[in-house]
Amino acid sequence: MRIELEKIGKRYHRDWIFRNVDLRLESGEKWSFLGANGSGKSTLMKVISGYTLFTEGQLNYFLGDQEIAHDRIYSHLTIAAPYLDLAEDMTLEEAYHFHQQFKPFPSDMTFTRFADLLDIHHRNNSLAHFSSGMRQRVKLALAIISDTPLVFLDEPCTNLDLQGIAWYHQLVQDYGQAKCIIVCTNRPEEEAPFAEKSIRMTDYK
Fold first, then answer.
1. How confident is the model at residue 70 (pLDDT cuts 50, 70, 90)?
2. What beta strand segments (E) does the chain contain?
């Protein structure tokens, strides 16, 4: 998987959120997009994921030598973000099977194994009865374990305690090695200690 950004810019009304972003993202790479709240890092993530249109520049996706159409990129990526909610009327097993209709899991990932990875015992309760930290674990697991080459994580440690943060780091280690993972954060030591590459949004103002 390869994504190429050339002179990408995003404007809301008369205000530029960022301009002249040149990036090349590839499978296996771990990135952190750094900046304070409101700096545009989440907007850039939304642009790359196809969630939001950009104002100027070029954005291209490739799988091997084959270019991927913009309206098909969604099938190659997963996202975990504060503004994307779980269907809280579902049980964990229902959420697992619902997600699998759109994004496959590795062939050896059964529901029992998935639930064991989350260390969740009240599996028959609806997600609405899960703690905020457990719901965040579900979001992260669905995104990171899915068999997709591209993963976007926006503020992944939201609502996680120290044990949950360690669990998240291990999840990336175990299931994210071959993926391109992009983390939007203003706490890189906590949320993206595994990132080898980074950009600062202040460089694109």
1. very high
2. 2-12, 15-26, 30-34, 56-63, 66-68, 77-80, 150-154, 180-185, 197-200
